[in-house]
Design a protein that fits this description.
- The chain is of the alpha/beta class.
- Strand 14 (369-374), helix 13 (377-390) and strand 15 (393-396) form a beta-alpha-beta unit.
- The longest helix has 22 residues, at 152-173.
- It contains 16 helices and 19 strands.
- The chain binds ligand BES, manganese (II) ion (MN) and zinc ion.
- Manganese (II) ion binds next to loops.
- Residues 249, 252, 270, 331-332 line the site of zinc ion.
Length: 480
């Protein structure tokens, strides 16, 4: 789909995408396409140089048919973040207008534009799959010429980041009658085989043997057996791996602490953390960074039946800790508890858990910022700097002893799974922290960011695939 060529203003392009800043001097070769009138087209307002505005105008002269102008404002507006969004707009135009032959004048933007364009193109042209009986007609992919210096690695990375995001979006969108623990595991196996990853799927019996009483308690009310999904990416010999652990609750009714009827709708997305892990592995398979990475997903639904776990139950996790269940809707932390303990058997150098864990993070940080907890400032700074590059915002919440002490407060067990309403995003993370120990750790609560209520320049409304790119970037740039 992509060709790499050199820009030639006298060349023959169907649609040529050009960045144009308010104070730019106009290249005479470019000006010739409009009979020397580009400046006056800007002055008359027929072409906009305003930040992120896209103007499409047929040329007056020469072989090239039309130019898609991208306004760069003052050139210092040309951040990676802006450029990604603008390329998202351009990508949507390519798709909507059905352009089949597009050329991007990369040098009119900024260094690194190729990688940003290919990432944005994947994300912005993505559509969620549907189950409509008359499927939408698929259109053939356009041919896109990247004009400038482009390395194969830039191309691969940009596309791989976008594709990883889209894998996570698709999985998160799938209804829970179709995406069960079983089919999620099948998908993981397919992904692993496609990329040549090692993998393991632990069945219920093996989980019982390992004493995963926390994850199994959540599964107790279900007719579908749980799965513990493990993927291994090897890029660094026998170095200690980074473990990325995802909450894979394929549907969360709340259990006996049942959700109100409006709160249940949408809970097919409660495996968003698992989707992030699988999306990340999709990316790793193509970018092949020099790291070892283990992905661990605890997969089950949280249902009600005569067998389901109940408030007041006391359960025992894989690491031997006992837990008083105060709320069966605080199930994600129970799933993560055993998944984290299992991840620790790989002696990872860091553990990162990702989960749609609490409504509390929505109240605290809204829908654009992922809430974090950490026991390691250096690790947090690495996340923060990757997140600045990907523009997936993160914010650290306090991990004080006052929270930990409340998680440890129970008359009958070592821990309780729900110390109360005030600060409950932090309790969720602090509970997981009880299973992490001294390993450097990041907790990412994506309950607010894993879905969007409206479309953006980079994709439709609904699942976002958040944190796939940030974790991929963090792993790619890890200081060893
Ligand atoms: N899956 C939910 C969290 C959630 C809420 C995700 C909204 C996406 C959107 C989680 O399992 C849950 O129910 N959390 C409870 C925790 C409480 C019982 C301590 C919550 O947030 O209310
Ligand atoms: Mn819940
Ligand atoms: Zn949940």
């Amino acid at each position: 789909m992509y060709q790499i060529e050199q820009l030639d203003w006298t060349g023959s392009y169907d649609t040529l995408v050009v960045g144009i800043g308010a104070a730019d001097s106009i290249d005479s070769g470019f000006d010739a396409l409009y009979g020397g009138r580009v400046k006056s087209l800007i002055q008359s307002g027929d072409v906009s140089t305003k930040t992120g505005e896209v103007t499409v105008l047929p040329t007056f002269e020469g072989e090239t048919k039309r130019v898609c102008f991208v306004g760069l404002g003052q050139r210092n507006d040309l951040t990676t973040e802006n450029m990604r969004n603008w390329f998202g707009k351009v990508a949507k135009q390519i798709k909507q207008r059905g352009w089949k032959d597009v050329a991007i004048a990369l040098d009119t933007f900024t260094e690194g534009a190729a990688r940003v364009f290919t990432e944005a193109y994947e994300m912005a042209t993505y559509e969620h799959p549907t189950y409509k009986s008359t499927p939408k007609e698929t259109t053939e992919a356009p041919s896109i010429r990247l004009l400038g210096e482009v390395t194969e690695a830039d191309l691969t990375a940009g596309m791989a980041y976008g594709k990883g995001v889209n894998v996570a979006r698709t999985l998160t969108m799938m209804p829970a009658n179709i995406l069960t623990a079983e089919t999620l595991a099948d998908y993981a196996v397919e992904l692993a085989e496609r990329h040549g990853f090692e993998y393991r799927i632990l069945e219920k019996e093996e989980m019982e043997g390992l004493g995963m009483g926390a994850l199994l308690a959540v599964n107790q009310g279900s007719t579908i057996p749980p799965k513990l999904i493990v993927l291994e990416y090897h890029g660094a010999g026998d170095e200690a791996p980074v473990a990325v652990v995802g909450k894979g609750v394929t549907f969360d009714t709340g259990g006996y602490s049942i959700k109100p009827k409006d709160g249940i709708v949408g809970m097919k997305g409660d495996m968003g953390g698992a989707a992030t892990v699988l999306g990340l592995f999709e990316t790793l398979g193509a970018t092949k960074p020099a790291q070892n990475v283990i992905g661990v997903i605890g997969a089950t639904d949280n249902m009600i039946s005569g067998d389901a776990f109940k408030p007041d139950d006391v359960i025992t996790a894989m690491n031997g800790k006992t837990i008083e269940v105060l709320n069966t809707d605080a199930e994600g932390r129970l799933v993560l508890a055993d998944a984290v303990t299992f991840a620790k058997t790989y002696e990872p150098k860091a553990i990162i858990d990702v989960a749609t864990l609490t409504g509390g993070v929505l109240v605290a940080l809204g829908t654009d910022v992922t809430g974090c907890l950490t026991n390691d400032e250096t690790l947090y700074h690495a996340l923060e700097s990757a997140s600045r590059e990907t523009n997936e915002l993160v914010w650290q919440m306090p991990y004080f002893d006052v929270f930990i002490n409340k998680v440890r407060k129970s008359e009958v067990a070592d821990l309780n799974n729900s110390p109360g309403r005030f600060g409950h995003m932090i309790f969720g993370g602090a509970f997981v922290g009880e299973f992490v120990g001294d390993t450097p750790w990041l907790h990412l609560d994506i309950a607010g960011t894993s879905e969007r209520a409206a479309a953006s320049d980079l994709g439709p409304k609904g699942p976002t695939g958040v944190m796939v790119r940030t974790l991929a970037r963090m792993i790619e740039t890890w200081e060893r």
